[in-house]
Amino acid sequence: KYYPPDFDPAKIPKLKLPKDRQYVVRLMAPFNMRCKTCGEYIYKGKKFNARKETVQNEVYLGLPIFRFYIKCTRCLAEITFKTDPENTDYTMEHGATRNFQAEKLLEEEEKRMQKEREEEELNNPMKVLENRTKDSKLEMEVLENLQELKELNQRQANVDFEAMLQQYKEFEEEQKRREQE
């Protein structure tokens, strides 16, 4: 490119773009949802042309939070959701309801129980001992059950190799006798 000798880049005016500028992006639905206006199910992985904007005054550990606007495939109602970097997920804002997720609820319940147990152990040293004995008893029971299952399988699948070899020899002898006849 040719730059004339009197070219000054500072004289070029800068574009003043708004902070809440919306971009058109192509994205997939991050979870199963159901439209509130028409009841249409939108499954996870359905592709949409969406508008994306940065949410003002919301940041998580320096990460910007984005809001997405999509339209229902049947009734064209607007559905919005935004990113949730704290839980590495998305949160539904309006226009649809998120379908039930048993796995997520189970995981959250498990985390809550673990947290309660740790808090209890910190306050009460006897509880630590009780939990250890419970865990060891549970582990012993699991090992016993596993041993029982192994024994049961061995009884049911008891293979007698000597008898098999003897039977095979008899079968070969019978075949030789037939050939000779």
Give the topology.
Layout: E1 23-28, E2 33-35, E3 41-42, E4 47-60, E5 63-71, E6 78-84, E7 89-94, E8 96-98, H1 102-123, H2 125-156, H3 161-180
Helix pairs in contact: 1-2
Question: Can you put this structure into words, describing what you see?
Answer:
The chain has three helices and eight strands. With 181 residues, it is α+β, with helices and mostly antiparallel strands. The protein has two domains: 77 residues, no CATH class; 69 residues. The strands form two sheets. It has a five-stranded antiparallel sheet, with no helix packed on it. Helix 1 packs across helix 2. The radius of gyration is 34 Å and the shape is elongated.
In short:
With 181 residues, this protein is of the alpha+beta class. It has 3 helices and 8 strands; from the N terminus they run ββββββββααα. One of its GO terms (molecular function) is metal ion binding.
Mean pLDDT: 90
Q: What number of structural domains do the residues give?
A: 2
Strand content: 25-35%
Low-confidence stretches: none
- Sheet of most strands: 5 strands, antiparallel
| Whole-angstrom Rg | 34 Å
The strands making up the biggest β-sheet line up spatially as: 1-4-5-6-7
Task: State the separation between the terminal residues, measured CA to CA.
Answer: 101 Å
Structural class: alpha+beta
Tally of helical runs: 3
Looking at how many chains there are and whether they match, the oligomeric state comes to single chain
- Helical amount among residues, as a percent range? 40-55%
Shape: elongated
Topology order in helix (H) and strand (E) letters: EEEEEEEEHHH
Q: Tell how many strands the DSSP assignment holds.
A: 8
